[in-house]
Write a structure and sequence with these properties.
The protein is built from six helices and no strands. By secondary structure, it is mainly alpha-helical. The chain has one domain. The longest helix is centred in the middle third of the chain and has 35 residues. It is elongated and about 60 Å long.
Length: 167
């Protein structure tokens, strides 16, 4: 990271990093590598992390409203009820055992499908307290951000032994 003025950054780069930080699958795991590549200042990287965290309440609202609309369709209602019930039965013991800490760890693992979207979906399906789930997911996003940053920074340095410097 450098000490660039965040207001002198190319707006296109900032928008792409922001988009990568809030879309499913990539989330912060896509935003941080992009930001590090373009040498974003720490303030902008923190902003990207905030974007990934702030999407959680929006996901909860979206799940509530869309689900309520779709439950009026019989096929969806049958599919939803059977799928959610099966998922709840299969994972109930793990949710009881690990709870919000498990949610934090799950979101904190920087792999595809383990981010804020999936964490919010899981918390919603299991009827977890939204405020506690939000905090657990937020901590998970922060952990994933730290791990992603470490892997990118040290991974690039580790790979540099295979490249020849011409300077």
């Amino acid at each position: 990271m450098n000490t660039k003025n965040p207001f002198s950054m190319n707006i296109k780069e900032v928008l792409i990093a922001s988009l990568l930080s809030i879309i499913p699958i990539s989330e912060i795991r896509g935003g941080i590598p992009y930001a590090l590549h373009y040498k974003f200042p720490l303030t902008l990287i923190i902003f990207l992390i905030f974007l990934n965290i702030i999407i959680v309440p929006i996901i909860f609202l979206f799940l509530d409203s869309i689900n309520n609309l779709l439950l009026k369709i019989d096929i969806y209602k049958k599919f939803f009820n059977s799928t959610v019930e099966r998922t709840r039965r299969k994972l109930h013991k793990n949710i009881e055992k690990y709870g919000y800490l498990g949610l934090t760890i799950f979101v904190g693992i920087p792999l595809p499908l383990t981010g804020a979207y999936t964490g919010a979906l899981g918390a919603w399906i299991f009827g977890m307290n939204r405020k506690k789930a939000f905090l657990a997911i937020a901590f998970g996003v922060i952990i994933a951000s730290i791990i992603t940053t470490i892997v990118i920074v040290f991974g690039i340095k580790a790979l540099s032994i295979f490249t020849k410097s011409f300077v």
